[in-house]
User: Fold these one by one.
Assistant:
Number 1:
Amino acid sequence: MPLGSSGIFHAAALIFFSYLGFEEIVKLSEETKNPERNIPLGLVLAVSTSIVLYVLVAFSAVSILDGEIEPILGSFCRSSFSLSWSERLCCSICDSSLATANTVLLMLLAASRIAYGMANSSSIPEVLGKVHSKTRTPWVAILFIAILSTGFILLANIGYLAGVTNFTVFFTFIVINAAVIMLRSKKADLQRPFRVPIAIGRFPVLPTLGIILNIFMLTQLSFQVLTAGLLLTLSGILAHFLYEKVVIHRVG
């Protein structure tokens, strides 16, 4: 721990980006068979397995190299000039850029489904809710999200970009956990295919801990990241209300 406990917390707030793929699985529930069972089960198994693997890789990395390491595989591949062809092939296949591409692909897929759902609820222009006649996918939303996302390529600092992304995720998780608590009190009799375990009466314990943990993670982000995240969040809220007031009311 060359940077002490504060370094661990800052790293945790940044590396949270690696867990975004799991959160995106929920957005594909409408396209999953028996989602009430398979989505929670898939999430728990995937997260549990990945946590074990992440810890083992981190333990191996800090045991072999010092604390100031870059992505472990890229550092190994660049510093070892005597690698065999099979070892270099492994480096190419497991390169972090491929892992990042996989995460980006899943996020683009999930974001297009979010845009599709918001378009169907008239929260954003309804053209984003168009479905392709053959593939049955929201092709307009997919193209829109892909084009919008390419603008972030111009940001050279991937750490800053990951931090801003994590801000939006932490903020979203706070809202989701708060919604679980509110639904338990206001709609206690609502049918629930999946119920969050561990509660004191009707008060869920895990969502409360989730709110506290996400607020703590927000405090570990830099001032620049917090500022950018707040501006993005406020701009999204403002755009929604403007669209609702100007477009929807005009149509109504």
Number 2:
Amino acid sequence: MDFFRRKPKAAPTFDDFVGALEAGRDVTRIAPFVFDGAAHLDAAERAAIQGRIEQVLRGGASDRLWPLALLAGAIVETGGDPADLPPVIYDRILEWFTAAAARPEPANDKEAETFQLLPEAFYRFEQAAMAALSRSAELRRSLPQKAAIQSQVRHYEQRYGFTNRMLSVLEDAQVVVLHPLTNRGWICRVDGISDNFQLHALLLDAFAGDGPDGIPGTRLAPEVARAAKDGPPSDASISSTWQLAQWTALLPDRTINPDHDAGGWIWNEGYPAEIEPFEGARVILIGPSTYTRSWDAGRMFPGLRASFTVEGRLPDAAAVIGEIAGRVTPRE
């Protein structure tokens, strides 16, 4: 019999759940009933449970108590206040980031096979943190542990993991989009975009196609664009023949440097905060690619709503493009 459906004689309480975890017992049977019960609490009761989770996690071993972090995240996902997520969750993440920063990279392939930068419990705590951070711009801005966590980024897994990406999300930020081949540019505003797959999709939605503000390319279907902003997930695939690049990749002939090793390309796997500013503004170059890229539609954090707004044409786009092109070393 499937014990996810076999209800215990008496519904387990939060204290039963904590006691089982502290004793190292299997909680597979009772966990679904505890999580379901928490989803039906009122606001005050949810906040109280979050406070109790804070107390237990603060004084216990994370490797045994990580299901409590998942419960805290589930409470937020089902309507709880993101600000009530236990602060100990962020403190533990900071501790793990700090410990990881002190670890050297594997010296050889044999060491790499067994190299584990972060413990398994970290990913459960991170999942809870993402539930809260994705639902609160204020929390992303003012999280007390934010600067300390980001100061400990040393490894690829940290840089491109969920925590650093989330804490690096641009909030209501202005970017400049340039199409050097036609001397056109636009002033845009982005918010809540977590990675460059999503950014690339929203650029296609804003500019791909014909017309005075169009750039040759295939525009997204409306439901695919919504999935990249604030709509339900989509199982569609996105394709693009564009190459996105930073201002440093613009060559004097106003083409984008085709050498990806030169360091100027905007890779879909990265995130918008990595785009290098030019005269104080992040600049995105759009040009043709030598191959077609494809990726899954949607967004990394379903709870994080995103927007991309074209505020208007850049009046002096040709002059800006010329100035940028003049600063780049000519192609040899």
Number 3:
Amino acid sequence: MTEAEYFATGDPLERHVYDAVLAILESFSPLTIEFVSVGIFFKREHTFAELRPKRDRRRRLRIELSMLFSRSVKHPRFARTWQGTGQRSACFLSIYDEREIDQEVRDWLTEAYLTSPTTSH
């Protein structure tokens, strides 16, 4: 799916959050962005961050930003975390406003990108 097709039917919040995340990541290389029916995947060689539209208990739209790390990360802003086998973990933020994409989130996205596993040649 193309970017235009993805955003053609979505809520404006999705676009605003995507633009805020992209402003952080656009200078990273290599970077691949995949638009799929369930959300947006940001990849180096593998997915390191995702944006997915969700509804909270009150049915309000939120955008779930998930990030994969090579360490266990705990923070009160995370709505939930997942610890994989080994050192990989995932953290999930509930975003209701693009202004929540702040310096702290910038640091986490940068770390997720830089620690994303790559294939050695």
Number 4:
Amino acid sequence: MGDEEGAIIIVQALHFEVSEFARNETTNWSVVYTYKPTPGYVGKDSVEIETCTGCNGVVCSEMEIVKLIFQIIE
């Protein structure tokens, strides 16, 4: 992804201790999403993410919504 490209959370998970993006030298400047459930939570959770790619420096040319569904078993 270029500097102007990225992702945002549009619908936050409900049962999270950590639900966030990182984009830094440890991720080689790629956008990485991390999820960690609330301690003791068992069940389903989900998050919706909007991604922006193909940016021309001002406007995203390609936007997608991605829904991640988690099944927490322990």
